[in-house]
Amino acid sequence: MKGSSIVVSAVLFVAVAVLYVLHFTGGSGNDTTATDGSKSNESLGGLKIAYVKADSIIVNYDLAQELHDEFSKKQEAYNSEYGTKRQTFEKEAAAFQEKLQRGGFLTEQTAVKERDRLLGKEQEIVKLDQELSAKLMEIQQENNKKILDNLMDYLKRYNETAKYDFIFNSGEVLIGPEAHNLTAEVLAALNEEHKAAKDK
């Protein structure tokens, strides 16, 4: 994701530089910014540019919500599994400490053996925590990839007819006219496609 952010930033920089050159060298001499708030297919300095609010799509995309709900259930199950094992270990450790303090072990060797067993159990719990955290991270990455792949796939198909030179993520756009904001249109189409796929 960091690499794609650098690429998007580089493309944005080039686009802004081109717009700057075209504007100040008298490219068309016309203000092509839409002022009526409607969708506009006018070019900006010879470039046809639009943007989407990717964060808004992620929040409102039905697939993203479903994936988030599934992830939350798995996270809850993992936390419960880890919590139960951790709680059992802590009880055993407290019992060991109490027994040790009151001299409940017949020999020092028995006490050392029990201590080593508990240390091994603690290491298993730490390992379990790491494994569960890694699984959750992997699921989250897969979910993010699935959402991004769907978005990019739709935008590529959409742009076959729309013919934009650039479609930016608004996270990289500081100011942009609403006329060039495709978010609502893209979100509606993605949700419609997701519903159709579920209904099959």
Short description:
By secondary structure, the chain is mostly helical. The chain is 71% helix and 4% strand. The protein has one domain (2-199): Protein Binding, DinI Protein, Chain A, CATH 3.30.910.20.
Short descriptors:
rod-shaped; 71% helix; two-stranded parallel ribbon; Protein Binding, DinI Protein, Chain A; 5 helices; mainly alpha; 200 residues
Secondary-structure blueprint:
Blueprint: H1 2-24, E1 49-52, H2 54-60, H3 62-101, H4 108-162, E2 166-169, H5 183-199
Parallel strand pairs: 1-2
Helix pairs in contact: 2-5, 3-4
What structural class should be given to the helix and strand makeup? mainly alpha
Number of helices: 5
Amount of helix: over 70%
- Estimated share of beta-strand residues: under 5%
Alpha-carbon distance between the termini?
A: 32 Å
**CATH fold annotation:** Protein Binding, DinI Protein, Chain A
> pLDDT under 50 segments (min length 5)?
1-43
Q: Rough shape? A: rod-shaped
Number of domains: 1
- What is the CATH level 1 assignment? Alpha Beta
Question: Looking across the biggest beta sheet, what order are the strands in?
Answer: 1-2
Main beta sheet strand tally, sense and closure:
2 strands, parallel
CATH architecture: 2-Layer Sandwich
Architecture overview:
With 200 residues, the chain is mainly alpha-helical. It has a single domain (2-199), classed as Skp domain (Protein Binding, DinI Protein, Chain A, 2-Layer Sandwich), CATH 3.30.910.20. The protein has helices at residues 2-24, 54-60, 62-101, 108-162, 183-199, and strands at residues 49-52, 166-169. It has a two-stranded parallel sheet with strand order 1-2. The longest helix is centred in the last third of the chain and has 55 residues, at 108-162. It is rod-shaped and about 90 Å long.
